[in-house]
Amino acid sequence: MSTKLVLTRLSKYDKIIEKVFKDKYRDGMKRVPFEREDLPEACDALLIPRIKNLGDIPYSYRFRKELPETIKAMAPKGCEWIIVADIPHNITNIQNIVLRNASPTISARLCDAHSNSE
Q1: How does pLDDT run across 62-72, given as a tens digit for each residue?
Q2: Distance (Å, rounded) from C-alpha 5 to C-alpha 53?
Q3: pTM of the model
Q4: What element of type H or E holds 80?
Q5: Which of 39, 51, 52, 112 has its CA 20 to 30 A from that of 12?
Q6: What span, in angstroms and rounded, lies between the C-alpha atoms of 79 and 40?
C-alpha cells in the first residue's frame, strides 16, 4: 500500500494564525492566548501585506473555516483547538476541549461554560 503525500496550499489567514500559534504555544498548554496586535506582527514576519480587517482572521476560524492541519495536529488525542473570543480583554484564545457524544447544542453550552470558567 502506498502513502500519498497531500500538499495543501495555506491561505494568508492560515499562515498568519499558524505563525501566531507557533510563536505562543508551549508543550502542555491548554490555552494559547494571543492579542489582536500579534496578527499584524505575524503579517510583517511572514512578509504578507497587512490584513485590513484583522478581526476577520479569528472570526473566520470560529465560524467559517477549520484551523490549519499543523495546528489541529498539536491537539492532544480526543481534543481539538477552537478559537474563543474573550471580550472585554480583546484577547482571543486557541483552546482545546474534550467533546464526547455531544449534540451541537450541548457542545455550544460546554464551550461557553469552559471559556467562562478559566
Answers
A1: 889 999 999 98
A2: 34
A3: 0.69
A4: strand 79-86
A5: 112
A6: 29
